[in-house]
Design brief:
The chain contains three helices and no strands. It is an all-alpha fold and 55 residues long. This is Transposase.
Length: 55
């Protein structure tokens, strides 16, 4: 997301880059978007069964 939303152009100096990164980070943290998890625990146990030991 950072690359697409903030770093999609040439930035000539380090100070400008730091300012842009700080502004992007603050906006992203303020927005507090939620994650829509669609991968259930049951699906994970099937798909990733090698990571889940048998009881």
């Amino acid at each position: 997301m950072l690359t697409r939303q903030c770093l999609d152009r040439r930035i000539n100096d380090l100070d400008t880059l730091n300012t842009e990164l700080s502004a992007w980070q603050n906006a992203t943290n303020t927005d507090q978007r939620q994650v829509d998890w669609q991968f259930t625990t049951h699906d994970a146990r099937i798909k990733l069964r090698h990571l889940y030991p048998k009881n």
